[in-house]
Specification:
Oligomer: single chain
Number of strands: 16
CATH topology of the largest domain: D-amino Acid Aminotransferase, Chain A, domain 1
Number of domains: 3
Order of helices and strands: EHEEEEEHEHHEHEEEEEHEHEEHH
Largest sheet: 5 strands, antiparallel
CATH class of the largest domain: Alpha Beta
Helix content: 25-40%
CATH architecture of the largest domain: 2-Layer Sandwich
CATH superfamily of the largest domain: ATP-grasp fold, B domain
C-alpha cells in the first residue's frame, strides 16, 4: 500500500492519488483529521511477530498500515480535537495522539519516505538552509534574522532605501504573508519585531524567478517572468506569487553547476522532494532563497507541461521511466 499523508482538499495530493490509481496501485489518502471521530487507529503486538497496524474508518473500511511500502509526507493534518473543550484535557489528548502518531511513523521504518518526517522537519528550517546552500557554493542574499529592532535598523540603513525585503518563516493560505520591501512606512512598527523574529534580506533584482521542483534527483525548472510593462515589474519584483496570473511561466534550462549544487543540497538535507526558489539576476547570477519541503507544483505543471505529479507517483510506486 502507498500512503499519501494529506487531506482531500489538497489538489496536489489528489492528482498524485489519481495517477497511482490509474497505475492500479493501492493507495490511501490518509487524513489525520479523521481521527478520533471518523476513524480509529490500533497497533497490536503478538509474541514474536511484527505489530499489526489497523486504521479503521467509521464507514467500515479497514487499512493494514503495516503493509505500507512507501509514503508521501505531503500536508499532514492533526487529529480533530475540537470537541475536547477543557484546556487540560485538550492538551492531554493532543499529547497522547502526538505520541501514538510519532510512534506510527517510526513503525513504518521499512517504507520509502518522501520525505522522512524527521528529515523533513529538520530540512525545513530556513536559517539552516541558507548556511548549507552557501557551503555548497550557491549564492545567498545578505540576511538578518532578528528580534532586535536596533540590529534591524542598522541592517536596513546599511542597504539604503528600498534595498531590503522582509518575510516570515511561515506562510499559509489561512495566514498569508507575502515578501515585501521595507520602506519608510515600516519604520514606526520596527519595535514589533521583539514579539517574534523576522527575516530581513537584501533585495535581489530579478530577470526571472526560478522554481525548481526536485523529485528524487529529477529537477523540473521553470522561470516566472512578469510582463516588463506591468506595474509590478516596474516597481521591482519582490514576490511573484501575488502576480502569478499575469506572469509568463515556461520551462527553464538551469546551468549544470547550479543543477549539481541543487542536487547536492537535496542530498545534504536528506530530501526526496522539495520546491526550491531561486532568482536569476539581470547579470545571470542565480541566488538561492529557500526549499519548501511540501511546496506546490501544479501551477508549474499546468503551464509548462512538466510531468511533476507523475514523477511523484512513479517514485511512490517504485516505477522507473526512461527520460
Amino acid at each position: 500500500m502507498i500512503l499519501v499523508i494529506s487531506h482531500d482538499e489538497d489538489i496536489h495530493a489528489r492528482r498524485v492519488v489519481e495517477h497511482l490509481q490509474s497505475m492500479d496501485q493501492p493507495v490511501l489518502l490518509f487524513d489525520l483529521a479523521e481521527l478520533p471521530d471518523r476513524a480509529t487507529l490500533s497497533i497490536e503486538y503478538a509474541a514474536g511477530a511484527r505489530p499489526r497496524i489497523d486504521y479503521a474508518r467509521a464507514g467500515g473500511e479497514h487499512y493494514a498500515l503495516d503493509r505500507v511500502r512507501s509514503a508521501w509526507w505531503r500536508r499532514p493534518q492533526a487529529p480533530n480535537l475540537s470537541r475536547v473543550t477543557d484546556a487540560n484535557a485538550h492538551l492531554f489528548t493532543a499529547n497522547e495522539w502526538n505520541e501514538a502518531l510519532n510512534g506510527l511513523w517510526r513503525l513504518l521504518g521499512d517504507a520509502r519516505w518522501m520525505n522522512d518526517p524527521g528529515r523533513d522537519d529538520a530540512a525545513s528550517r530556513k536559517a539552516a538552509q541558507l548556511r548549507i546552500a552557501a557551503e555548497l557554493g550557491l549564492k545567498v542574499p545578505r540576511t538578518l534574522i532578528s528580534s532586535d529592532p536596533q540590529r534591524v535598523r542598522a541592517f536596513v540603513e546599511a542597504r539604503g532605501p528600498g534595498a531590503t525585503v522582509h518575510k516570515t518563516f511561515s506562510c499559509t493560505h489561512a495566514v498569508w504573508r507575502e515578501t515585501r520591501r521595507f520602506d519608510d512606512s515600516d519604520l514606526p512598527h520596527l519595535d514589533t519585531v521583539r514579539l517574534a523574529p523576522v527575516i530581513f534580506q537584501e533585495f535581489v533584482p530579478a530577470d526571472a524567478d526560478i522554481r525548481v521542483t526536485a523529485v528524487d534527483g529529477q529537477l523540473f525548472a521553470a522561470e516566472i517572468k512578469l510582463d516588463p510593462g506591468s506595474a509590478a515589474a516596474a516597481a521591482g519584483t519582490v514576490d511573484f506569487r501575488p502576480n502569478l496570473g499575469d506572469a509568463e511561466v515556461r520551462e527553464h534550462a538551469l546551468p549544470e553547476p547550479v543543477r549539481e549544487r541543487l542536487r547536492a543540497l537535496m542530498q545534504k538535507l536528506g530530501l526526496v522532494y522539495g520546491a526550491i526558489d531561486l532568482r536569476r539576476t539581470p547579470d545571470g547570477e542565480y541566488y538561492f532563497f529557500e526549499v519548501n519541503t511540501a511546496g506546490e507544483f501544479l501551477f508549474i505543471e499546468h503551464r509548462t507541461g512538466q510531468p511533476i505529479a507523475r514523477a511523484v507517483a512513479d517514485w511512490l510506486a517504485g516505477v522507473s521511466r526512461s527520460a
